Amino acid sequence: MGKRIYNFNAGPAALPLSVLEEIQAELLDFKGSGMSVLEVSHRSKWFDDVINEAVERTERLLGLGDDFHVLFIQGGASLQFCMIPMNLALEGRPVDYINTGTWSTKAIKEAEVQGKDVRVIASSEDKGFSYIPKEFTIDRDASYLHFTSNNTIKGTQWAQFPDAAGIPLVCDMSSDIMSRPFDVAPFGLIYAGAQKNIGPSGSAMVIIRKDMLERTPDNLPAMMKYTTFSGKNSMFNTPACVVIYTINLVLKWLEETIGGLEKMEQINQEKGSILYDFIDQSGFYQGTAVKDSRSLMNLTFRLPNEDLEKKFVAEALEEGFGGLKGHRSVGGCRASIYNATGIDAVKALVGFMSEFERKEG
Ligand SMILES: *Cc1c(COP(=O)(O)O)cnc(C)c1O
């Protein structure tokens, strides 16, 4: 086997090594089926067990009651930008959004293009999306309030979710789902593209409160309706079988190896402190997000100039640290340290950064 790098990619991103090994071990004969999981029918008992287990693990990890459905829908988080207003906007009532960056902006556009009455009740665009807005007024007549819990590109994260005063919260948790425990009660819908924190690309996880399903209009195409997926255990058509299978293994790792979301949160906080404390004491690296809005998943920073940033990313890769280039829309550097990136990787990165500073600072 070739040498594995420390993977700081933003998405698709690192998976736990033990999960990859488990996939490898059972690749040719999945659960005694005599077939690979890539080959089994989604209508088989083998796959039924996989999807049901993935749903049950999600319910246990997030403490979901009977009032939620866990769905897997292809098309990534981006299709959810479109399905949410299509299904959940109530007649004659606006849809409210908080804009904290690129992904929120895209979600807003998809509601606007459908002619919905979109209100952006708060935005951090005035300061380049470097912070999470704190002051805003919730509209009690809104169909829902949409926000992005972690802003993958700008490196900001909601430390505490907005209080929507009874209006269903709808949240894009693509880049921090399963990174910490939270109270699901105020949420009407939570969604996440799998490829950041829970699996490979090819499916979104959608957690929808059952009463929200009553909003789905009859006159939508089948594949655009949440009710189509909830009525068929996400198997109206062929689902992303291998993605769901991998998600199940990642969730098993979270439950059995890590020990649940409280433990995961502690580990994520420790990783974040190691890296942010290092950046803060350095005069060379500069964090880009406002301190109280910093993300524990995507740590964005700059070096004194762009030439040094290029050199940093290139030398890092040579030393076995991948994915440190910032998103192409903002430049700079970014270390994505999702659940599967261990404390060892973060400590090794700090070692490299410190050495680079000593040489170039
Ligand atoms: C990556 C990302 C998306 C886009 O996900 P796709 O699955 O590629 O559509 C949306 N929102 C957030 C917060 C993301 O990080």
What do these coordinates show?
There is one protein chain. The chain is α/β, with parallel strands linked by helices. It folds into two domains: 18-258, Type I PLP-dependent aspartate aminotransferase-like (Major domain) (Aspartate Aminotransferase, domain 2, 3-Layer(aba) Sandwich); 260-360, Aspartate Aminotransferase, domain 1, CATH 3.90.1150. The protein has helices at residues 17-25, 45-62, 76-88, 102-112, 226-231, 241-258, 261-281, 306-318, 343-360, and strands spanning 6-7, 68-73, 95-99, 118-123, 145-148, 150-151, 156-157, 169-172, 187-193, 204-209, 286-287, 298-302, 321-322, 333-336. The strands form four sheets. It has a seven-stranded mixed beta sheet with strand order 2-10-9-8-5-3-4, sandwiched between helices. A three-stranded antiparallel beta sheet has the order 11-12-14. A hairpin with a 4-residue loop joins strand 6 and strand 7 (156-157). The mean pLDDT is 97. Bound molecules: pyridoxal-5'-phosphate. The site of pyridoxal-5'-phosphate has 12 residues, from helix 3. Pyridoxal-5'-phosphate binds at residues 11, 76-78, 103, 148, 152, 172, 174-175, 193, 196. Belongs to the class-V pyridoxal-phosphate-dependent aminotransferase family. SerC subfamily. Catalyzes the reversible conversion of 3-phosphohydroxypyruvate to phosphoserine and of 3-hydroxy-2-oxo-4-phosphonooxybutanoate to phosphohydroxythreonine. Pathway: Amino-acid biosynthesis; L-serine biosynthesis; L-serine from 3-phospho-D-glycerate: step 2/3; Cofactor biosynthesis; pyridoxine 5'-phosphate biosynthesis; pyridoxine 5'-phosphate from D-erythrose 4-phosphate: step 3/5. Pyridoxal 5'-phosphate binds at residues 77-78, 103, 152, 172, 195, 237-238.
